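Q: Structure for this?
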Amino acid sequence: MTALIEVRNLKTYFHTQDGIVKAVDGVSYNVNRGETIALVGESGCGKTVSALSILRLVAEPAGKIEAGEIIFDGIDLLKLSNEEMRKMRGAKISIIFQEPLTSLNPVLTIGRQISEGLEFHKNMSTKEGLQEAARLLKLVGIPHPERRIHDYPHQFSGGMRQRAMIAIAIACQPQLIIADEPTTVVDVTIQAQLLELIRNITKELNTALILITHNLGIVARYAHRVFVMYAGNIIEHGNALDVYHYPCHPYTAGLLTSVPRLDESRKNRLIPIEGQPPDLIALPIGCSFQARCAYAIPQCQREKPPLLEVAPNHYAACWVSQKEQRPWQKKSL
Amino acid sequence: MAIVTNTTTGPERPHHTLWGDAWVRLRRNKLAMAGGIFIIILALAAIFAPLITPYDFAHQDYTAILQNPNAKHWLGTDGLGRDVFARLLYGARTSLAVGIFTQLIVICIGLPIGAIAGYSGGKVDNALMRFVDVMYGFPDLLLVILLKAVLGSGIYQLFLAIGLVAWVNISRLVRGQIMSLKSRDFVSAARAMGGMGRYITWRHLLPNALGPIIVSITFNIPRAIFTEAALSYIGIGVRPPTPSWGAMIHDGYDVIFASWYQVFFPAIAIALVMMAFTFLGDGLRDALDPKLRH
């Protein structure tokens, strides 16, 4: 099976007054048809920028995709003209943003905003678009959809807005949906409902999903594979459960011990990752995590570790891990 | 789930469009409605002036000069024995026409230029805004006088001259609004759905900027009326004997110590119109913001 989308060596830099911010610095990943992958990492690690790069929506002129290939269904998106790219957005690839309130236009009704993509890509009239919008709102679990399509975003609750965003994203039945921290702004019960909804819909429509999150708990439950990002690089990837249970990079292990887990004793204290992520303008020569790493060896300061297979289908960019020593794993077991 | 829906939806709402909802909200604003009704009554009175007053605005009655308000001449007569009430009514035609038609020109020029500059940014923005800056550098009245001299006399030339000068303000306003709005998330979202630049500008950005634009226009209408008054004073506005409120005020200055009514009534008329437009503009701004519902 060939991948639906393959991101190869993507580099997206931001040119600022202080220097070049290497937000995404040589990232490669792929998503198969109907598969859900997760991009995980803390704020500012480049996960959102790498996803926005797929849609070529990085804020210009500061942000620029410097190098790489994004092969979607056999086409390199970075080589398309602006007009060709516009036809991909929403039709083949769509995105669910983190903040549903600010991502919905306050002066347009929900129905109009859902039917927008249908009018762009499926040549529907406004009337047909609104009918389809009502059907989609019903699909994402909003009661009385015929009436609610005439409501404005502020008349929807937070969870309902995010459902409406999901309806917008799936309107044209895209092959790939990018969900950028879709549940960060809603409370935990709604979070679970929304994720179930996204999972059911992607399963039903056989849509591939890139789930961007910082919550590894979500990843283990909803994603097939996971890519952990740190300072603009992917530092570990593998099957979601493998990564969750046997992290092969100390950073991933740190992420896991810093969030509460139901399957652990309540006496165990949460262990935060000390220190700050490195400055993306001046990255250290060796491993970018070594300054915060409790297991660093001298080699980590000298050379940047490559992303190598450390277990079957499990890759990590860590010198220690590649030497078959993973002292952190004992802790999480 | 059904209970939740009922509490958030409330009773069935009959209006669904932005304008329909705005109208519902506007109707609840008493001051704005009063302003709007005043403007409508004034417009009707101006249109049907011959039915309201028996006097002709240009008829000079030398037996009745500078009369105080009385039963025959409700608001008195001016220095040439013309009925002030009749002149006020016919003057409303000039003033309202100046106010409205200049703003139409302003919208037709200022809105697209501001929107294009704001959305495109970069070189396009730079070129357009430097041009606006040059226009802005001239004193408004001087530029209007200059244009009027080039365009020639006549009331349409007057509209054009005022409109061609006044659009720079609104284009700056629109540009600023568009620039701040275009970095909002819903614009990224619309682009992520495949929206085109032009579509996003008209569909997403301008409706969000409508409030400030409408308020600015309602404030600009009395300004245009004042500009016309100033032009009439120096003799390049409307041609006598066509009345305009500005011309009436300036005519009245000459005889202010003999009869202060000559300045008072047209000044009150201008003040009332300005207030009416301001109330209406404020009301419209609130009405067009769906977040301020309830």
